[in-house]
Design a protein that fits this description.
The structure holds two protein chains of two kinds. By secondary structure, chain A is mainly α. Chain A has one domain. Chain A has 16 helices and two strands. A two-stranded antiparallel ribbon of chain A has the order 1-2. In chain A, helix 1 packs antiparallel against helix 11 and helix 3 crosses helix 7. The radius of gyration of chain B is 17 Å and the shape is globular. Chain B has two domains: 160 residues, 3-Layer(aba) Sandwich (Rossmann fold), CATH 3.40.50; 67 residues, no CATH class. Chain B is α/β, with parallel strands linked by helices. In chain B, strand 9 and strand 10 form a beta hairpin. The two termini of chain B are 34 Å apart. The chains are: A mainly alpha, B alpha/beta. Chain A: This is Branched-chain amino acid ABC transporter permease.
Chain lengths: 347, 237
């Protein structure tokens, strides 16, 4: 391997890693706030790409129907649980949030679609359509078992992923898509050609991580999310509702997954089931950070991207094997270095 | 004085055992009421039920409304606050952030800075350490932070679970002095303590809880001279 090739592979790896980093940060966000390892995150990314491709082809995406179905289910569950709890006065607010708002988003997207909007608007539409999915899934699937063990939540999360892949086939069909590049710009740096798309991916990853950092460090809502992650009982005693914190975490997380889906769509062909590998590789990155550290997850995800890039050069067939083999030494190192749990018991 | 908080015939089951049985007590506005009793009598369980972390039977009224079926968060929004035995601080976060989160339930944010300044005046130590992570504080400082964080919510009734537990005698005295001074701010206090003498010296009224039931109650100044309590909890004279 010459240094030129190594440089190209490294840049390619950083770009792929940046996409994984966005998903990994979202995974950590949701895990720390809700204790759910949200495997379907990759699916959310893939669905965003498919949504954008449908919008580009002037078809109304299946995401719309998916959101409507989920909104109806979530509202039904919310109505039943509120009536059971003897709290009918909370119904209007719940219906506004779980039914009216998601339907309004779908309706707005449908109307705007007919005006043949430019690319920038289509990007916003794709993100708008995708963001309600995770909070709705949270309401339907995870809220009723919120107090379950991490293992139970993970098992359900895996099952949910398979359900979503099935729904993906139903709503998007079996064809793969590749969207038009967001930019045709390219530049040369130290003798290596860097495409505008690659730069865009890295910049987007940096900007979104930066925004998330600002949100966590400087806003009360961001701090309340961190508090929920650090100490659930303590945060409840401050009046912070874990369910609300969870919803915010899902909204933010799906926004990150959505952005990564948009970034990856022009580079890779995305199918209804492409999300699994994206989610799993981001998960490996998140584990490097111990599932709790955002910078750790981002660095881990970029590491996975670079490793994958070099691995695919050496042996394209074995690249996933190489990436996932990385998990074993990391898990051993993590379990040897986990002084954390003892501290928590003392607490 | 009007009634701030009352429990009537409250029973709390914990793992199928009745940890607290038919307990009735009340706290008047601006009063410090203490519940004393031995380890395992159900004191902590009582407070956990009062804040809503444990389900209970019976009637609970706070500020004129029935709170028995309300969620923890709804009770906190009505300014019923608990400083639990474990303090439950946000150990990875700074002292300043811990205090700020204490005010999370307040809709009106205009007075938050003023309250923060008041808390810092009361506990200058916290101001010195405002950028430090809560997990790095000493035991006494952690208790101050837990108290300060609760005060940020402008509580009407503050429930304190064993505030002196594990603290050096000098700091215990300081904590009790702070508790007494809170009464002057108009905060009602429900204080659960194993340190019966310090609690009764600070409180206006006291209840004695033994194996989940109230066995005795009366003005604190009477209880402190009660011969039975002296032998059982006050270590004789």
């Amino acid at each position: 391997m010459t240094s030129d090739i190594a440089a190209i592979l490294a840049i390619d790896g950083i770009a792929t890693g940046a996409v994984y980093a966005l998903v990994a940060i979202g995974t950590v966000l949701i895990f720390t706030v809700t204790r759910v390892i949200f495997i379907p995150f990759g699916d959310i990314a893939a669905f965003t790409a498919l949504t954008l491709a449908a919008l580009d082809a002037k078809r109304f995406p299946g995401t719309g129907a998916l959101v409507v179905v989920l909104a109806c289910l979530a509202s039904l569950i919310e109505i039943i649980s509120l009536l059971r709890a003897g709290e009918p006065r909370l119904l209007p607010r719940a219906l506004l949030f779980y039914l009216v708002l998601p339907l309004a988003v779908v309706g707005a997207a449908w109307l705007v679609m007919r005006m043949d909007p430019p690319l920038a608007v289509r990007l916003v539409l794709a993100l708008m359509l995708i963001t309600p999915i995770s909070p709705l899934l949270d309401r339907i699937v995870f809220r009723p078992i919120a107090d379950g063990t991490v293992l139970l939540l993970l098992t359900v999360s895996v099952a949910l992923h398979f359900a979503l892949v099935g729904l993906g086939l139903l709503f998007f069909g079996p064809e793969g898509v590749r969207t038009e590049p967001l930019t045709s710009f390219s530049t040369e740096f130290a003798g290596v050609l860097i495409s505008g798309q690659t730069m865009l991916i890295v910049i987007a990853a940096l900007v979104f991580s930066g925004l998330l950092y600002l949100f966590f460090d400087f806003s009360l809502v961001g701090k309340s999310l961190r508090a929920t992650a650090v100490n659930r009982t303590g945060s409840r005693l401050m009046g912070i509702r874990p369910a609300r914190a969870g919803t915010i975490a899902y909204l933010l997380g799906s926004l990150m997954a959505g952005v990564s889906g948009i970034l990856i769509a022009p580079v890779n062909t995305v199918f209804y089931d492409s999300g699994f590998l994206i989610g799993l590789k981001a998960f490996v990155g998140a584990i490097v950070g111990g599932m709790t550290s955002y910078p750790g997850a981002a660095i881990g995800a970029v590491g996975v991207g670079i490793l994958e890039s070099f691995a695919s050069f050496e042996s394209s067939a074995l690249k996933d094997v190489i990436v996932f083999s990385l998990l074993i030494p990391i898990l051993i190192w993590r379990s040897l270095a986990s002084l954390h749990s003892e501290e928590e018991i003392e607490e | 004085m009007s009634e701030m908080f009352s429990m009537t015939d409250v029973t709390v089951c914990y793992d199928n055992v009745e940890a607290v049985r038919n307990v009735s007590l009340s706290v008047e506005e601006g009063q410090i009421v203490t519940v004393i009793g031995p380890n395992g009598a159900g004191k902590t369980t009582l407070l956990m039920a009062a804040i809503g972390l444990l389900a209970s039977r019976g009637r609970m009224v706070f500020g004129g409304s029935d709170i028995g079926r309300m969620s923890v968060e709804d009770r906190v929004e009505r300014r019923l606050c608990l400083v639990p035995e474990k303090r439950e601080l946000f150990s990875d976060m700074s002292v300043a952030d811990n205090l700020l989160l204490g005010s999370y339930s307040l809709r009106d944010r205009s007075g938050v800075q003023k309250t923060l300044d008041e808390v810092y005046d009361r506990f200058p130590r916290l101001k010195e350490r405002q950028r430090q992570a809560a997990g790095t504080l000493s035991g006494g400082e952690r208790q101050m932070l837990a108290l300060g964080r609760a005060l940020m919510a402008k509580p009407k009734l503050l429930m304190l679970d064993e505030p002196s537990l594990g603290l050096a005698p000098l700091i215990v005295r300081e904590i009790f002095r702070t508790i007494a001074s809170l009464r002057d701010l108009g905060v009602s206090i429900l204080l659960v303590e194993q340190n019966a003498r310090a609690a009764l010296e600070t409180a206006d009224y006291g209840y004695v809880l033994e194996t989940g039931e109230i066995v005795q109650s009366g003005p604190a100044k009477d209880l402190i001279h009660d011969p039975r309590l002296i032998t059982a909890y006050l270590g004789g004279h």
